[in-house]
Structure formats: C-alpha cells, structure tokens
Amino acid sequence: MNGKNPKIPLILDIKGNSLDDGPGIRSVVFFKGCPLSCVWCHNPESKKPGPEISFDKTECVDCGTCVEICPENALDRSNAFFIDREKCTLCGLCIENCPSGALSMVGRVMSPEEIVRAVIKDKPFFINSGGGVTLSGGEPTLYMDFLSALLQKLKSEGIHTLLETCGLFEWASFEKKVLPYIDTIYYDIKILDPDTHQKFCGAKNHRILENFTRLHRLLPDTGVDLLARTPLIPDITATEKNLTAIADFLSNQGITRARLLAYNPLWHEKNEKIGTPDTFKNNKKMHEWIAGEKIETFHAIFRKRGITTG
Ligand code: SF4
Ligand code: SF4
C-alpha cells in the first residue's frame, strides 16, 4: 500500500549485513503492513500499511521549529505523544525543517527493481557466506504480486531468498506466485488456541495452521526449507500450555526442528515513537528479559517430543 494502491507496499527499511535473519550474511527488506496486530510486536511501525510520522524524543533539541511551521497545529508539548495524528496530514514540512532528525517519515515507495539495486552490491558477501535476502515485515505476503516480482528478480540474480511470514495468507495465490521462488520460510506459530490468538494477535489462527500443514506436506516436492518459530512472550506465548500445544501440533506432523525466539523488551520505546499507547507500560514482566532457567524449561517441552530448538 503506497497510500494509493493497496497492492503496492511501502518499504520500512533495508538492513544490510544481518547475521540474525537466516543463514550467512543477509540483507533484510522490511515491508509495511500486517494482517495481524500482535500486542508485543517488535516492529510496531510495520503494522499499518500506510505512511506514518515518527518522533524520537531522545533526538529532539526542543528548538520549536516544527511547532511553529506545522500548518495544522498538530504539534503540542502537552500531548503525551507530541503529535496529534488526527490533525496531521503527513505533509512532511516538520521533518524537512527539523535540525536534529528527531522527526521522520516511516515507509517509502520502492519498486522491485530499486530493491534489487539496493541489495545487489552485497551479492559477493551473500555468495561467500551462504547468505542472501530475507523478506520480512510487517507481512510481505500481503502484497503477493509485488512479492512475486521481487522474488523472481532476486532468483534471476542467483540470490538465496528467505521469507519471514505470519502465515495468514491466501493459499492458492501464495502457492502459484510466491512458493516457486522461495528457498527458505521462517513461519511463525505464536499461539495455538484460536481464541487466545484472536485476543493477542487480532485474528483467529485457523488459516495460519492450515497453511503451515499444507506447506509441510509439499516439502518433498518443493525442496523449501521450512522452519516453525515461536516468539517467547511472557505469560502470552511463553506458557507451558501454549508451548506444549505447539510442540504437539508440530510433532504430530513429524516435524523435528523448530525455533524459540528470545523475548526482547525493547519494543516498548518503538510504540511511543509512532504514538501508540503501550497497554503493557506497567506490566513488569513485559519489561524484563526471561530468565535462562525458564527458557530452558520451554526448550525441554519441544525436546521431549523429539523437536530440536537450537
Ligand atoms: S507532517 Fe505536516 S501536518 Fe504533520 S505534524 Fe508535520 S508539519 Fe504538521
Ligand atoms: S524541529 Fe525537531 S528538534 Fe526542533 S522541536 Fe521539533 S522535533 Fe524537536
């Protein structure tokens, strides 16, 4: 969605030299827009498909230029988030005139060709390290035709492709337009109970689980490397009940490899920058890292069912 066409995504960022988003050295392309709305989202600026203005109070030198220049009177120190997003028309004047870079626009239009041009300079690193390009978000499959065009261009350059997905996509379109051009899929299975999934992620999970099972069944034909991942979120996903249900779901399909993602409490600050109230502000557990011994018990649930999570 570029603000006009819902089939064209905005790109949040392209991060080079990543060692955490798949094998080898990778460039990660972040799409903006997601069909889920997980309360703990680590990239909250990726949830909405349209452009947003971001305010980093740690960069602001309080010069007052933006307040004076805003034609909509949308900026006010008495507002907890500084910007009144109902009034703001995203004209960009304040961003252009801010001397410190405290204000920025989140999301920009890029064509598949421009994205390939941005990542191709790192191709020698991809090849030497067994790396490639990771498509993340947000949810790239929201933009199936754009994603397909980008993947085809990457594959024609001989670049390894990895998709990070929440799994909430339309199967027929995915199978035809995306699957043929993907080498690896990191597939998030966050919560197994549909009602709990709806409560914390904003939608039921039936289609997510169905799509995963379909993908897994097709593996012998596609050769795609499929890895199920579960983020460990205190008292939400990281409960014995939920992790046992997920481990059972995977082991019933004969799956022997999955990944548990460590909790990172730093997402709270990102919410503030885009003016989203933090409903977990006073929840102590959501501001702490999970203790190592506790994490070990979570891994043991999967090991007990013959699933490695290293
Ligand atoms: S983008 Fe324009 S309308 Fe929005 S706060 Fe800045 S100057 Fe005001
Ligand atoms: S122009 Fe930038 S530095 Fe000055 S008050 Fe506004 S956000 Fe802060």
Description:
The model has no long low-confidence stretch (mean pLDDT 94). The protein is globular, with a radius of gyration of 20 Å. It has 310 residues and is α/β, with parallel strands linked by helices. It has helices spanning 65-69, 93-97, 112-120, 123-129, 144-156, 171-177, 194-201, 206-222, 240-251, 267-273, 292-303, and strands at residues 10-18, 26-31, 52-55, 103-106, 108-109, 132-136, 160-165, 184-188, 225-231, 258-261. The longest helix is centred in the C-terminal third of the chain and has 17 residues, at 206-222. It has eleven helices and ten strands. The strands form two sheets. It has an eight-stranded mixed β-sheet. A two-stranded antiparallel ribbon has the order 3-4. The protein folds into two domains: 10-50 and 109-303, Aldolase class I (TIM Barrel, Alpha-Beta Barrel); 52-106, 2-Layer Sandwich (Alpha-Beta Plaits), CATH 3.30.70.20. It binds iron/sulfur cluster (2 copies). One iron/sulfur cluster (SF4) binds next to helix 1.
Second-tier CATH architecture of the largest domain: Alpha-Beta Barrel
Number of helices: 11
Net shape: globular
Radius of gyration: 20 Å
Number of domains: 2
Instruction: Name the beta content range.
Output: 15-25%
Summarize the main sheet.
8 strands, mixed
Q: How much helix, percentage-wise, in residues?
A: 25-40%
Overall average residue pLDDT? 94
Q: What bound compounds does this protein have? A: iron/sulfur cluster
CATH fold group of the largest domain: TIM Barrel
The helix/strand series, from N terminus to C terminus, equals: EEEHHEEHHEHEHEHHEHEHH
Strand order of the largest sheet: 5-1-2-6-7-8-9-10
**What's the count of strands?**
10
Assigned CATH class of the largest domain: Alpha Beta
